Amino acid sequence: MPEITKCLNEWNATVEALGQGKQTILIRNYGTNLPNFILYPTVSYANKDDFLESFQPKYRDFVEENALPVKENSKFMVKYFAKVEKVIEKPVSRVGSLKNHYIWTSEHVKSYMNTPKAKVWILRVYELEEPVMAGRTRGMRYANLLEPVSLEGIKPVLSDAEFNKITSSIY
Length: 171
Fold this sequence. Notes:
Blueprint: E1 3-11, H1 12-19, E2 25-28, E3 36-42, H2 60-65, E4 71-72, E5 75-91, H3 106-112, E6 117-134, E7 142-150, E8 155-156, H4 160-170
Parallel strand pairs: 1-3
Antiparallel strand pairs: 1-7, 2-6, 3-5, 4-5, 5-6, 6-8
Protein name: DUF1802 family protein
Organism: Methanobacterium formicicum
Pfam family, one: DUF1802
């Protein structure tokens, strides 16, 4: 049975957007050498009074509903696994052209970019057969889950046709 312990720390609203097919990409200052990982929800952004301003107006209700993950003690519910299909570079000045593929505002994306070229991670996201309450080690970007998570029975969030249509519009 395939299992995984590697996870990527990401805002819960973004994890849910990826897991519900509202988003297919992550935009970073850096690439990744991990081919796949569990999407591990984080909450630090939701502690800011103005956190909703970082998201496109049409997604603010969604973000508010999904700001906080399910938590038990120090464990968070994980529901999604992601494969990095490709990482492409875009000039930071052009990230706005991808706004149909992410839930943040373009201003927010540009505000945290500190390189001239953004790394756009194109992710194929899968839903776990059953959500799992998981703890993790410390880590800013990546961490390790304290217990392996089974990848048995995972299902893609988007059909092949939907995913291919989205990715062809990104390239």
